[in-house]
Amino acid sequence: MKKILFAAVIILSMVFAGCIFSEKKPQGVNFAYGATSSMGAIENQTQIQKFDWRINLTNTGDRAAENVNASVALHPEIASRLNGSYINSIMFVDIPPGFTFGINGTVIFNATGLSKQDIAGWEPLVSIKLMWIEDGSGKEKIIEIS
Fold this sequence. Notes:
CATH superfamily: Immunoglobulins
Largest sheet: 4 strands, antiparallel
Number of domains: 1
Shape: elongated
Oligomer: single chain
Order of helices and strands: HEEEHEEHEE
CATH class: Mainly Beta
CATH architecture: Sandwich
Distance between the termini: 63 Å
CATH topology: Immunoglobulin-like
């Protein structure tokens, strides 16, 4: 009898543990992300700065995001000081649940007359506006990188 009772307690504990610790996916589209960035002078020329950034996104939801578009906006101080052009819109196909993708960029800008503290005060350095279609209606999410 003790063995049967012990086995029942173990089985019930496992069942309840599974109920408590089971992970549920968010309903609909849900973009989880991680971002990195770095900035520094080019070849010891402190007046020319290089800014690199990368963001990895995963659709952790249970539905596909359709017609995904990402618009990238640099901080106005960086955008006004660019050395060259910059692509600011990216089109993707549908992003199914569990799919991970990355967006990255590099810009070189003129930092003449600026201190490290000036640049450190610019936040966010990059804003990414994700737009997609979900169940026939437009959705969006803004992600900021500092």
